[in-house]
């Protein structure tokens, strides 16, 4: 049999009369006695295969009777436009091979009656669910749109090491790695590396795993997640917010183009479009929250509940900017007009922080002072600090949590649904 | 001063008379008394800034005298086509700011007199070398070309976990991670995950770090490297070799388009073009090697020296196919005609193996038998094996070492030159 010539989504009525080779999984079998229908599923959709005496070789009719759900089959057949079949088209098979038999599945991918722990335990099976196929094909298209946006803004892609010798930023809990004779750690972010790279490659981005050994066990924390990091020389936080606005616009237009498929499987995209993203100063956000009855004072961080409350004023997607400097990491640049504040921002989608960023400190003396202020010892960062002696440009950047973006965009209830094989406090398998 | 409006590479004679804003680093200062030249370097190239009385504001002339090499500057000025200046163009600055001063560098980025250990110790500085800028901007463009090729072949991008609970494939040495109360490992490859994903997402690729705790300390081994992995349902190893041929064609055309810049900095691309890539059966390769005097018998693996020797017959880029099955991992499918052989291949560039792949076993019973044959205990792989019960398609795939590809393509002597921050047996910093 020839290689698969088409994905099911490519079988349209205008192929009427054409021979095609398909391959995929048996989603459903409808046996009406003489006439039998098999719904074939592949990554991109479903198609009806119609078997009936006269149109179907005799031997195939018997083979069809032996099929089980999720058996893997390959089919060669003739496309026929149809007024009855879903999608207006069906295929009359002339040849059929069973490539693999399937036992009954441990996850109900048809009616979604399995709970999340069961689904994650048998994740490879759960991923056959058309809802998951819609999520993860979309994820790939979103990644592509994000990269294209960053290329357009002249960022180049880099990879920095995930095994590091010391805590990157201080504070966060790290996973320990035994590296030959030495103790090392898994990087919580590429922060210091990407800043260093602005001194040579100017505008860089990295899409790679990041690690947090936090003992959280919530619906929106992961211990291994995909971080999209960008950093650019000769830009400030406003320039980066411009880039992110463009980035979110591309992302939402990809989601929009896949809306039918998403809705068919019960997914409700959070954003219709992105025109401009409101940039709300922290102080203004505080005032709004107080007017809503929240007891929040200058210097407090905002929590998810507050971020949700602010949607009333700013919609589902907004920046909060100019946070108190002491709420942010040591490498954050203070505002020139008011050093209590910083040139920083978060991007909030559906109440969830999906991006965090800032203009960075680019002089060694200030960086050392900010470290000391946070009880970090500059001598532990000598390798990094010395880079600032040799021509470090002003720079700014962002860190975007890819799984959270996907979760918030699609209104998923748990971030684990936005990862193929999640790693959390108690989950190290499969 | 406005944001950088142009990269230096974008300043061409046709911009004559236009005002531009540039930013970058002082590469060279030529002081001819009244007239002074500053060569400004940025990520994409260099441009001559010309300061002369009458054309340059008085205050700038003084400022220029205070410049040191690698100071970070921003400039606003007027472009002028020139018959004398390199690239046929220069800029007459009207405004200049020193954004950061630089101390003398610990690496000679001008004359390449520093040795590799020094360069890697001060890697952030070493990366300012135009040769490195050429390598790593090209790396990003190659990655883009590779992804575009895989998208064209309908692969989608995925991410699989790098923290795993058991050895993926048996055999290789793994780094240990302390994962809360448990002992875990860093993945040596996404092999089993990507195979599982063919049962849902059909054609997947992943570009991510991979880890080998090998004690090698050679010029072509790394302990953390970027692995480009692809796996596709309903394909065999010949189909995958077709994809790889297309992929290498795109990669080489990117290199070709950057040839001038690469050659200027002493880099000699290994390939002029890719028409068809020879597919040499292992047995034929053995015969050729014997005719060259190598003492090699059926069942032996080929080493770098032999792979270099074969270039005499097949050129700088060729596949070796149909290896003895027992030389390959347990998941490799045996040939149907001769079960001593396997549906496997390596892709050799400049004597170095850059890709390895095969058609995979897709039935549980065979997989278990192949495990036992290699003294692996199937019960340790139960989670993976069970996926084969629930509709596993025939599939095939590849693993491409990105850093080795870059090394071989550009004729670099050491794979560490093809990584921003290498990790090796003795190197965990910076």
UniProtKB/TrEMBL annotation, chains A, B:
<feature type="binding site">
    <location>
        <position position="212"/>
    </location>
    <ligand>
        <name>L-aspartate</name>
    </ligand>
</feature>
<dbReference type="InterPro" id="IPR006195">
    <property type="entry name" value="aa-tRNA-synth_II"/>
</dbReference>
<feature type="binding site">
    <location>
        <position position="356"/>
    </location>
    <ligand>
        <name>Mg(2+) 2</name>
    </ligand>
</feature>
<comment type="subunit">
    <text>Homodimer.</text>
</comment>
<dbReference type="GO" id="GO:0005829">
    <property type="term" value="C:cytosol"/>
</dbReference>
<dbReference type="InterPro" id="IPR012340">
    <property type="entry name" value="NA-bd_OB-fold"/>
</dbReference>
<feature type="binding site">
    <location>
        <begin position="401"/>
        <end position="404"/>
    </location>
    <ligand>
        <name>ATP</name>
    </ligand>
</feature>
<dbReference type="Pfam" id="PF01336">
    <property type="entry name" value="tRNA_anti-codon"/>
</dbReference>
<dbReference type="GO" id="GO:0000287">
    <property type="term" value="F:magnesium ion binding"/>
</dbReference>
<feature type="domain" description="Aminoacyl-transfer RNA synthetases class-II family profile">
    <location>
        <begin position="136"/>
        <end position="430"/>
    </location>
</feature>
<dbReference type="InterPro" id="IPR045864">
    <property type="entry name" value="aa-tRNA-synth_II/BPL/LPL"/>
</dbReference>
<feature type="binding site">
    <location>
        <position position="353"/>
    </location>
    <ligand>
        <name>Mg(2+) 3</name>
    </ligand>
</feature>
<dbReference type="InterPro" id="IPR004523">
    <property type="entry name" value="Asp-tRNA_synthase_2"/>
</dbReference>
<feature type="binding site">
    <location>
        <position position="360"/>
    </location>
    <ligand>
        <name>L-aspartate</name>
    </ligand>
</feature>
<dbReference type="GO" id="GO:0003723">
    <property type="term" value="F:RNA binding"/>
</dbReference>
<keyword id="KW-0460">Magnesium</keyword>
<keyword id="KW-0067">ATP-binding</keyword>
<protein>
    <recommendedName>
        <fullName>Aspartate--tRNA ligase</fullName>
        <ecNumber>6.1.1.12</ecNumber>
    </recommendedName>
</protein>
<keyword id="KW-0436">Ligase</keyword>
<dbReference type="GO" id="GO:0004815">
    <property type="term" value="F:aspartate-tRNA ligase activity"/>
</dbReference>
<comment type="similarity">
    <text>Belongs to the class-II aminoacyl-tRNA synthetase family. Type 2 subfamily.</text>
</comment>
<dbReference type="Pfam" id="PF00152">
    <property type="entry name" value="tRNA-synt_2"/>
</dbReference>
<dbReference type="InterPro" id="IPR002312">
    <property type="entry name" value="Asp/Asn-tRNA-synth_IIb"/>
</dbReference>
<keyword id="KW-0479">Metal-binding</keyword>
<feature type="binding site">
    <location>
        <position position="169"/>
    </location>
    <ligand>
        <name>L-aspartate</name>
    </ligand>
</feature>
<dbReference type="GO" id="GO:0017101">
    <property type="term" value="C:aminoacyl-tRNA synthetase multienzyme complex"/>
</dbReference>
<feature type="binding site">
    <location>
        <position position="353"/>
    </location>
    <ligand>
        <name>ATP</name>
    </ligand>
</feature>
<feature type="binding site">
    <location>
        <begin position="212"/>
        <end position="214"/>
    </location>
    <ligand>
        <name>ATP</name>
    </ligand>
</feature>
<dbReference type="InterPro" id="IPR004364">
    <property type="entry name" value="Aa-tRNA-synt_II"/>
</dbReference>
<feature type="binding site">
    <location>
        <position position="356"/>
    </location>
    <ligand>
        <name>L-aspartate</name>
    </ligand>
</feature>
<keyword id="KW-0030">Aminoacyl-tRNA synthetase</keyword>
<keyword id="KW-0547">Nucleotide-binding</keyword>
<dbReference type="GO" id="GO:0005524">
    <property type="term" value="F:ATP binding"/>
</dbReference>
<feature type="region of interest" description="Aspartate">
    <location>
        <begin position="191"/>
        <end position="194"/>
    </location>
</feature>
<dbReference type="InterPro" id="IPR004365">
    <property type="entry name" value="NA-bd_OB_tRNA"/>
</dbReference>
<feature type="binding site">
    <location>
        <position position="353"/>
    </location>
    <ligand>
        <name>Mg(2+) 2</name>
    </ligand>
</feature>
<keyword id="KW-0648">Protein biosynthesis</keyword>
<comment type="function">
    <text>Catalyzes the attachment of L-aspartate to tRNA(Asp) in a two-step reaction: L-aspartate is first activated by ATP to form Asp-AMP and then transferred to the acceptor end of tRNA(Asp).</text>
</comment>
<dbReference type="GO" id="GO:0006422">
    <property type="term" value="P:aspartyl-tRNA aminoacylation"/>
</dbReference>
<keyword id="KW-0963">Cytoplasm</keyword>
């Amino acid at each position: 049999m020839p290689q698969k010539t088409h994905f099911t989504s490519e079988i349209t009525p205008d192929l009427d009369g054409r021979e095609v080779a398909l391959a995929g999984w048996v989603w459903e079998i409808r046996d009406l006695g003489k006439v039998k229908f098999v719904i074939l599923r592949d990554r991109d959709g479903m198609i009806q295969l119609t078997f009936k005496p006269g149109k179907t070789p005799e031997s195939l009719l018997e083979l069809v009777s032996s099929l089980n759900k999720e058996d893997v089959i390959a089919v060669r057949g003739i496309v026929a436009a149809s007024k009855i079949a879903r999608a207006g088209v069906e295929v009359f098979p002339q040849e059929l091979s069973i490539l693999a038999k399937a036992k009954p599945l441990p996850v109900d991918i048809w009616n979604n009656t399995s709970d999340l722990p069961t689904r994650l335990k048998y994740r490879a099976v759960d991923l056959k669910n058309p809802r998951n196929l819609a999520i993860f094909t979309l994820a790939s298209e979103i990644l592509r749109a994000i990269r294209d946006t960053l290329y357009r803004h002249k960022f180049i892609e880099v990879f920095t090491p995930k095994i590091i010798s010391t805590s990157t930023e201080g504070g966060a809990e790290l996973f320990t790695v035994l590296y030959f004779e030495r103790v090392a750690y898994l990087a919580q972010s590429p922060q210091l590396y990407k800043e260093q790279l602005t001194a040579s490659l100017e505008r860089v981005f990295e899409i790679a795993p990041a690690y947090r050994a936090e003992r959280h066990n919530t619906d929106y924390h992961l211990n291994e997640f995909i971080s999209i990091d960008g950093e650019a020389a000769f830009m400030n936080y406003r320039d980066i917010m411009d880039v992110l606005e463009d980035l979110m616009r591309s992302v939402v237009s990809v989601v929009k183009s896949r809306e039918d498929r998403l809705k068919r499987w019960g997914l409700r995209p959070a954003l219709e479009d992105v025109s401009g993203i409101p940039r709300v100063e922290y102080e203004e956000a505080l005032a709004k929250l107080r007017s809503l009855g929240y007891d929040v004072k200058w210097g407090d961080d905002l929590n998810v509940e507050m971020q949700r409350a602010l949607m009333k004023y700013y919609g589902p997607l907004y920046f909060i900017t100019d946070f108190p400097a002491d709420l942010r990491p040591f490498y954050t640049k203070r505002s020139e007009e008011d050093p209590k504040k910083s040139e920083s921002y978060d991007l909030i989608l559906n109440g969830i922080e999906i991006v965090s960023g800032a203009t960075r400190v680019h002089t060694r003396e200030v960086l050392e002072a900010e470290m000391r202020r946070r009880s970090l010892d500059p001598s532990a960062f000598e390798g990094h600090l010395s880079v600032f002696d040799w021509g470090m440009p002003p720079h700014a950047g962002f860190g975007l949590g890819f799984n959270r973006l996907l979760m918030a965009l699609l209104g998923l209830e748990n971030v684990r649904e936005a990862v193929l094989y999640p790693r959390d406090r108690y989950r190290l398998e499969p």
